[in-house]
Design brief:
Length: 265
């Protein structure tokens, strides 16, 4: 009887040890999986209207490139986060924040009191202002001279907003386009008398289209504007990360290098 009992005990002990080892292996595997998931970097989805060179556009390789893209990538690197870019039409771009489809908008977005009511902004990363593009033969010399003219703007931009204030919100002389380059092409074709848009875009277009026969009017009444990255209202965590990154690239010279690449100074 003693032999049988010892054998049974030995078998039970062996099974217990195997069970314990299996449990330990499973627990370690689970812990590793949870740890990997916990440390996996969140990829922030970025909306940008890639029809606004030099800030954002699509190159021949179908890549989204531009000043804003270089800046947001550098900011993300300094902040320790990952970003993925999505080409998104300007109309409806901010709705992607409230719906949760996108985490932030990096698309030459001017920080305005109106926009602050429905979204939050990072610290400014670019100083801009509006410019007027007209034909070299035009007699227009300032903003107020546009009162009885046909003016092209990109829908929903700052240019659209200030032209509305001058001409009236429902004035049929305001011609709206999906992008500033389309508005400028309409100016070249004689469909509008002038285009009001952000300085960087207007300067870039004319610089790259030497035969455009256009000139720029810099009206002193145009106020300085500042671009920021827009996020869903209340997303303080992401704002803090973006601001950390913006401060870092400005401090170590990265921002200056990017600015010089696109604007020469």
């Amino acid at each position: 009887m003693r032999y049988v009992t010892e054998s049974a005990n030995h078998s039970m002990q062996r099974d217990h040890n195997m069970f314990s080892k299996k449990n330990i292996i499973l627990l370690l595997a689970s812990a590793t999986l949870l740890s990997t998931q916990a440390h996996a970097a969140k990829v922030y989805q970025v909306a940008t209207d890639a029809a606004y060179a030099p800030f954002e556009s699509v190159n021949e390789k179908k890549e989204i490139v531009g000043f804003d893209m270089d800046v947001i990538k550098a900011v993300a690197s300094k902040a320790g986060i990952e970003v993925k870019l999505h080409n998104t039409p300007w109309e409806g771009i901010f709705a992607t924040l409230s719906s949760g489809d996108r985490d932030l908008v990096a698309s030459a977005v001017t920080i305005t009191p109106e926009r602050k009511q429905s979204m939050d902004f990072s610290d400014p990363y670019f100083e801009a202002k509006q410019l007027i593009a007209v034909s070299k033969k035009s007699s227009i010399t300032n903003f107020t001279a546009l009162k009885d003219k046909k003016v092209g703007v990109q829908t929903g931009t700052t240019g659209d907003e200030i032209v509305q204030k001058l001409l009236g919100k429902t004035n049929p002389n305001i011609k709206r386009f999906e992008s500033t380059p389309l508005a400028i092409k309409e100016l070249q074709n004689g469909g509008v008398d002038a285009v009001v848009a952000d300085n960087g875009v207007v300067i870039n277009f004319i610089a790259n289209n030497k035969s455009s026969s256009l000139k720029i009017i810099d009206d002193a009444t145009f106020a300085k504007e500042y671009y920021g990255f827009a996020v869903k209202k209340g997303n303080k965590e992401l704002i803090e990360k973006l601001n950390k990154g913006i401060a870092a690239i400005k401090a170590d010279g990265t921002y200056d290098k990017i600015h010089k690449k696109y604007f020469g100074n």
